[in-house]
């Protein structure tokens, strides 16, 4: 059942199917380019799901021909500075919430992911892409630097040298190269994209949600810690996980050689 009232004028649809929340960009006539209403709707949707412990997997996707073409150039052309501020302010409030939530975030990508669309995709924990998708950081073609976290995520995924190449040249990247570089986790035929994403989201939604959150934070925060600091953080997180109902269920299931039934608690 959908928790939103989707209409053609709604720039972003928040859909809920059991423990899976889907944020669907919905400006297909503009290849889902982010304007101010979409940015604000994205923040509101992320705030909603971040406050709901029943959400155990999140999917980001786009309606129409592609995932997202980037920022809305009509907005930026009309008022470059204020337009950029009005779009980036809600996005920059939403992205830390999205990154910090326990629920794994999946980007379901097709057609094109360019500019801010690629930046948003890189914020996901797992990316599944349709064959034929084109990826382009693209900012340099507009005479600007990247935003929406790309300067943070991209070097962590591909390394500093390759990140600078992608950012400075602004060349399109096909799905084979995106998979090789680690920009995406999996490439599937376009006709199978929805089914493959649903299967993955259901698998993750059945998992130990609190442990997922701990794992995400440990990996992302490891860049800023020494080894002793990371070992201490791991030990603290493990002890916290050991106090959860899911850990007890996992240990009990292992003892009797059965699959654990996790509840996200």
Give an overview of the whole structure.
With 265 residues, this protein is of the alpha/beta class. It folds into two domains: 12-205, 2-enoyl-CoA Hydratase, Chain A, domain 1 (Alpha-Beta Complex), CATH 3.90.226.10; 209-255, Lyase 2-enoyl-coa Hydratase, Chain  A, domain 2, CATH 1.10.12. Helices cover 49% and strands 14% of the residues. The chain contains eleven helices and eight strands. It has helices at 36-50, 73-78, 80-100, 116-123, 150-158, 160-169, 175-181, 193-205, 209-221, 227-242, 245-255, and strands spanning 12-17, 20-25, 57-62, 105-109, 112-114, 126-130, 134-136, 186-188. A six-stranded mixed sheet has the order 1-2-3-4-6-8, sandwiched between helices. Strands 5-7 form a two-stranded parallel ribbon. Helix 1 links the parallel strand 2 and strand 3. Helix 5 (150-158) crosses helix 6. The two termini are 23 Å apart. Residues 1-7 have low confidence and may be disordered.
Determine the CATH topology of the largest domain: 2-enoyl-CoA Hydratase, Chain A, domain 1
Average predicted confidence as pLDDT: 94
Shape: globular
Oligomeric nature of the chains: single chain
Poorly predicted regions are: 1-7
* Overall tally of domains: 2
The CATH superfamily of the largest domain appears as 2-enoyl-CoA Hydratase, Chain A, domain 1
Under CATH at level 1, the class of the largest domain stands as Alpha Beta
- End-to-end separation in angstroms reads 23 Å
- Biggest beta sheet summary: 6 strands, mixed
Q: Please give the radius of gyration in angstroms.
A: 19 Å
């Amino acid at each position: 059942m959908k928790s939103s009232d989707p209409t053609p004028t709604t720039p972003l649809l928040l859909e809920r199917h059991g423990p899976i929340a889907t944020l669907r960009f919905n400006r297909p006539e503009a290849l889902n380019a982010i304007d101010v209403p979409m940015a604000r709707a994205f923040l509101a949707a992320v705030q909603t799901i971040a406050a709901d412990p029943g959400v155990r997997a999140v999917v980001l996707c786009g309606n129409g021909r592609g995932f997202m073409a980037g920022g809305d150039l009509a907005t930026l052309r009309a008022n470059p500075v204020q337009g950029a501020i009005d779009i980036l302010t809600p996005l920059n409030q939403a992205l830390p919430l999205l990154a910090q939530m326990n629920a794994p975030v999946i980007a379901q990508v097709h057609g094109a992911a360019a500019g801010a669309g690629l930046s948003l995709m890189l914020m996901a924990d797992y990316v599944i892409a349709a064959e034929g998708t084109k990826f382009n950081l693209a900012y340099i073609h507009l005479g600007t630097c990247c935003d929406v976290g790309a300067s943070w995520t991209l070097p962590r995924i591909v390394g500093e040298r390759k990140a600078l190449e992608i950012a400075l040249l602004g060349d399109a990247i096909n799905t084979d190269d995106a998979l090789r570089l680690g920009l995406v986790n999996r490439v599937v035929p376009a006709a199978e994209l929805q089914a493959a994403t649903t299967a993955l989201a259901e698998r993750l939604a059945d998992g130990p949600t609190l442990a997922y959150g701990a794992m995400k934070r440990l990996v992302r925060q490891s860049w800023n810690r020494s080894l002793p600091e990371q070992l201490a953080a791991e030990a603290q997180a493990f002890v916290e996980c050991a106090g959860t109902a899911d850990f007890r269920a996992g240990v009990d299931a292992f003892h009797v050689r059965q699959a654990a039934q996790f509840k996200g608690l």
